Amino acid sequence: MIRRGPQSIKVMVFVAPTIVIVLMLLVMVVSYQALRQQQSAFLDVVHGPLAYATSTSTQLLLGTSEAQAEVLRYLQLSQRLDSDDEVLRDLRASILLRLEQIEEVFSALRADLERSAEADVVRNIDDFLSIYSAVASRLIAAPEVDSIAVSTVMAHYQQLQSYITELAERSLASAQRSAAETEAQVARSVYWLGLGSLAIIVAAVLVTLSVGRAITRPITQMIGILSSIAEGRPVEVVPGRERTDEIGAMARAVAVFDRVTRELRDREGSLVEARRAAEAANATKSAFLANVSHELRTPLTSILGFTRMIRRRLQRSILPELERTSPDTAAQGDEIEEYVGIILSEGDRLTTLINNLLDLEKIEAGAMEWDIADADPTELLAQARDATATLHEAAGLAFDMSVADDVPRVRADRDRIMQVLINLISNAVKFTPTGEIRCEARRLGEDFVEFAVVDTGTGIAPEEQDRVFEKFQQVGDTLTDKPRGTGLGLAICREIVEQHGGQIRVESVLGAGSRFAFTLPRAEVREGDSTGKERACPARS
Fold first, then answer.
1. Interval 7-22: pLDDT, tens
2. Tens digit of pLDDT for each residue in 217-229?
3. What beta strand segments (E) does 383-496 contain?
4. What are the beta bridge partners of residue 413?
């Protein structure tokens, strides 16, 4: 393969149009010169013989005719008037002026045509004009009319007219010859211009084809190679990599792309295998959690049941007897009852953890059944308030509920949204030593309704706000603080809200309280619905 310079493609791209432009400029220059020659030839015809044939000859004919007419008039008037009459004096002066003007015109003509083909006619006109002027001047100066002089003037006038006419005819013939020569020259110019234009067009086409072939052929090869790479077919070799121009750079880039594509496909295969392994491990984990949860739930139910029976037996039979025996024995019984309460409390927490694990696995696996229907936000908040009344009343917290007047109905699974609201209110009670809890509902745009649970509790640190919705994440220092839940409640809330097409978020200031808010899509408006009715509910404390 021929090695080209580092800028050969660029040179071809720029040089080809430059060559065409130069050729076009050359045609324009040649055309301009040809037109200039045509213009010069035309001006030669107009200002040469044709000008004399139409201008000078006409002036001579008119001048001699007018002079002859004035001479004849002078001869007629001289027979009736005295020679000193004013009319005759003016007429003599006019005749002399006419003859001088004729001499001036003819002098210019004689200087221009002295070396032309009409020089003999010019000399004849010069001779006869001189005789005519002399005879006419002598005739008007004589006191009496001389018949011989009159005959001489008439004869020379006629001969002078014939020579002037001959000059005009010969000048016209010369102009016609010049026009014919000009026409032939124009025809030759048109011929050469056409031939030159055709040659330039052919050259431009050849240059364009050459440049196009030099550029498109390697590009077509690169396109074929890229198509093979895209279809996954192996590429043995990328031609043109040894070139030092842009095509070579593109070929080397294509070779690198082929290598990278192969590596990516190999990695993609590895990732697919890793994904399958991860999905299999996740399925195994889900099955394991489900099995373990079910296996734990049965003995745990038995443990809690027997523990409750033990506590009832202690409270009804054993503790009253111990109180009657001795104070030390009664204290030991109270301690045993405390231990039994701890067993029941931790058993309930373990039951909640198992239930949350099962719910979360169902939601993530898509096995959860949803009962989506229209729901009234006021009813949802009121039901959640009633369900958690014992919690916030036992904690001595005020409870307030506020629903905006324009809040529409929402599309939701009532039980699952109640689960979210109860979980948020329970968390608010846990982390609010004093103050109040407020539930809100308001319209958010045209398509959503926002629910919020606001408390005046301890708040959440900024670095922990992004982690509270993750699995097994709890606020505070889990090494020093006593765990206050399973760490799955907010993760389940996020999954439930997102399954409804909404979002959940938290806004909190450490030491000032938190605001957990989530959105639900509004229900379709039906005829007869009213969203403007009063929704304010009395606060409960």
1. 455 555 666 667 777 7
2. 777 877 888 887 7
3. 398-403, 410-413, 436-444, 448-455
4. 372
